[in-house]
Target: 5-formyltetrahydrofolate cyclo-ligase
Amino acid sequence: MAVPSPPAPDKSALRAAARAARAALGESRPVIAPRPELLSLLAPGLTIATYAPMGGEADPAPLASAAVAAGCALALPHVIDRPTPIRFLRWREDDALVAGPFGLQQPVDHMEEVAPDLILTPLVAFDRTLARLGQGAGHYDRAFARYPAAHRIGVAFCVQEVDRLPTDPWDMPLHAIITEREWITA
Ligand SMILES: Nc1nc2c(c(=O)[nH]1)N(C=O)[C@@H](CNc1ccc(C(=O)N[C@@H](CCC(=O)O)C(=O)O)cc1)CN2
Ligand SMILES: Nc1ncnc2c1ncn2[C@@H]1O[C@H](COP(=O)(O)OP(=O)(O)OP(=O)(O)O)[C@@H](O)[C@H]1O
Model:
């Protein structure tokens, strides 16, 4: 009889391990610099959704600045609570942010809602098949379902890579992941 294989780790165990790996970077967090493959996706008039990093997340600011330099407009997610879908609101780099739920900084809620052409997505963990793990509230899963034509680009440190993530029926793979070392595509 075959030796039973150990159960695959579930999403919450993988999330905890990846958060610990990210936290172990401490203050020596690498810079995620723009890469040519990302720059080739940017064009004047496009709307790029970025995010205000929290905790130990990779900072997408150099990527957002490259998008502005390429003539793109920016948007940031606006969060109400776990069950409510996020909305992407117009944001310029000098616009003030206010405190939101989960310790997030976000635009004031009366900014214009916009449809992103490319979504820079914070990752908790990822694998080489471009599967991603987020905070578990489904905020980005639902945003991806609402904007299926948007480019889905994950942003993470390479220590957040895991061998293989479990996937659920609602998971939409990323188109690419940018780390401090690589542009990962399938
Ligand atoms: N910077 C950033 N902005 C973002 C997200 C994100 O992951 N990062 N989101 C992604 O969906 C959305 C906000 N959704 C969130 C949903 C749940 C939690 C949450 O449960 N946070 C944990 C702490 C996580 C940690 O230790 O790193 C908590 O509050 O207990 C956070 C954000 C949109 N904006
Ligand atoms: N299109 C959708 N519409 C409504 N609910 C969804 C949709 N996609 C996912 N969800 C819900 O959101 C939750 C997502 O959980 P999951 O653990 O996959 O999150 P995640 O991989 O961390 O991603 P996210 O960053 O989007 O939270 C699940 O409860 C799921 O039922």
